[in-house]
Amino acid sequence: MYKRILVAIDGSRTSTVALTEALKLAERPETRMRLVHVVDSPYTYSEVMYGEVGVDVEALRRSWRQMGQTVLEQAAAQAREAGATVETALLDSEGRRVSSVIVEEARRWPADLLVVGTHGRRGLEHVLLGSVAEGVTRHATMPVLLVRGQ
Fold this sequence. Notes:
Elements: E1 4-8, H1 13-25, E2 32-39, H2 42-50, H3 57-81, E3 85-92, H4 98-108, E4 113-118, H5 123-129, H6 132-139, E5 144-148
Helix pairs in contact: 2-3, 4-6
């Protein structure tokens, strides 16, 4: 059985379903869960999207971090209510791909299972929005559980 399960949380319904599935695997008392939320850096987009419209990028970054912290707190409360031993981590992408940050954290912690929700996008929507789940599965060195949203 898995003893260290890392779950990527983004506040979506899909990540909530992924957390629910991970909790089913974390029923043993020795199992630890780490919930992570990656704040995508506004600096990555600042020149393209915000540079000429006068947006305070620092205020935007603080806001995104606060939203991420709230998402983590809600997910941790759900996990604790289910009886899981849980910890959280709010991570910054710092211009890297979100999937890379998740995989790096799973290696660093170290997780023996990585759980991530997938929206199942296809075609042009997939090309435009990319897929964190796909990036995770390509680069993870531990088992990955992909959970399809409802």
